[in-house]
Amino acid sequence: MGSFKDRVVLIESVGDDIAYAIARKVASKGAKLALFDIDGKNTSDIVARLKEDGIEALGVTGDPADCTGVKQAIGVIMEKYGKIDVLINNSDYFVENDIVETKAQGWYQGAKNNIDPAFFLCREVIPIMRKQSYGRIVNIGSIEYLGLPQTSVYSAAKSSMLGFTRSLALETANDKITVNWVVKGTIHKSNMSQEQEEKMAAKIPVQKLGTPEDVAGAVTFFAADTSKFITGQTFFVCGGKSLSFSMSI
Fold it and tell me: Hey, where are the domains in the chain?
């Protein structure tokens, strides 16, 4: 899959096992890590977990959905490393509610927390990538963008990332920057009961849940040097769920 030796990889929203799996995978291939989250506990926890694995990482706390917070975070990372080669946008703010019961603030929060981080980070990072004539941007989405009852806010926010990814890929195609989208299906979480896992797995063609490492593998593929001829594409990590999504709820 290629080496990440001396590549600086920025991972945004690091409070889940997927971010940890990605960080471990790219670090094992030589990457330098910058981890950015609004919650200081998330950044300190993942930095500590990685340190236990013998991996050093820069943790930066700030609001990815705020343009000022993003500028400040990018400044800290650039002061430390002097470049950013890979940006991984990992925001995932789940909203579940009947649309009639959804307040305006709920709609705004769904958009703000799912879309704004990718926009502000890309706006700041792309000039850096253009200057260095190299960049990989990987957006992580959710299969719910295809639509589910009670998730109109979340689905709308997630589906917007498809157009964002494709348009940005075209804008940067001549700059040696690629922009791609990994869409995750149902991924195992440590707090799931066996009953919950079996019930969810029964709705997936391969009859099992995905793992954070499955998502990390797809992200790493797009983030590597070897993916230079692939841009604007969608990669489903869903065990075949997307093939019959509308009929399997």
Answer: 8-237
